[in-house]
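Standup notes
- DV: blocked on the single-chain target, sequence here:
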Amino acid sequence: MTETSHYKVLIIGGGTGGIAVAAHLRKEMPDLEVAIVEPSETHYYQPGWTLVGGGIMQAEKTTRPMEKVIPKGTRWIRDSVTAIDAEANTVTTEKGQQIGYDFLVVAAGIKIDWEAIPGLKESLGQNGVVSNYDYKTASITWETIKSFTGGTALFTQPKPPFKCPGAAQKILYLADDALRKQRVRGSSKLIFCSAAPGIFPVKKYAKTLNEVIARKELDVRYQTHLVALRPESKEAVFEKLADGGEEVIKYDMIHVTPPMSAPDFIKDSPLSDDGGWLDVDLHSLRHTRYGNVFGLGDCTNTPNSKTAAAIRSQTPVLVSNLVTAINGQEGKAAYDGYASCPLVTGYGKLVLAEFDYNMLPKETFPFDQGKERRSMYYLKKYILPRFYWDILLKGGDLSFGGN
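- DV (later): unblocked, structure below
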């Protein structure tokens, strides 16, 4: 197969990372030949899906046509990558194209493994089985909560890595508030089953979240990992990670945070590490073996929380090091692992967690972000979506934290 096209910089993925990098490259080097390979006709603001599931935002507000967010001057190749030949500097697509590159940026996102939990895929969106991790089902989460009349509501969190780790618990807190407003909380039992050993890895924020859990009288069970659903009997099967035992819990509603992994074409490529993730230096975001390959976002093996805020912090580092590499020099910009989880703890309440690789707080504002604040809730609801669409995706100043 011969090359059908060749670009100075080829970007895989039209999600947050791919669009942000392209926008910044267009500003840094206006004459640079850049192309994005992305099959979807729609770009999604995924941080908004928790708000959709909580009845706060309409699903339509989280979408825009892909053609509206692709930076001007960037070629959009409407196709999916199926293979990467890092030696030949080419990618192969689903439609049979072979595209060459001088430099490759991999921003392919993460694969949702719905099939990894038996019974989940076929029951998703019906009979009480919901998830905010898909645009089509986030609205069903709210419809299910709104019509809940009592019983057991389960919320799950899988083994890492998975994107937006806070989302698994945020919908728990919103559901609690909603059921109280609907006056059915007294006849409801809310259970959070998490594979993690604790509620949050940063002590400062974990302290506040544990207080929220106590205040809301939530049943939280750690090292409890969902392995199967029995939708016909409304039973969830969990593995008890501490002793290898099994626990079966009957539910009336279950919100599932599904297992996730790297996209298959990365797993099958020479660019992956032993776990299948894009193998990049955790500070420079440059591939550990192929110097003309860079990566950011959910598909990489950087040990940070996989959030849009992490991409916001990674973008200027990657662009700086990529531009330097294009000019034949060694980049010096370094990513410190910054990530942010705007932890909605109820309607009108939010803890803005910001931290680095060392799980130490790295906060934007001059006040204590470890406390629940109404101002931070409004930040999440109103300001961050505008920041995302109008600044992050358009190559604007990324000095602000959040998202």
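- Follow-up: The domain at 113-260 is CATH 3.50.50.60 (FAD/NAD(P)-binding domain).
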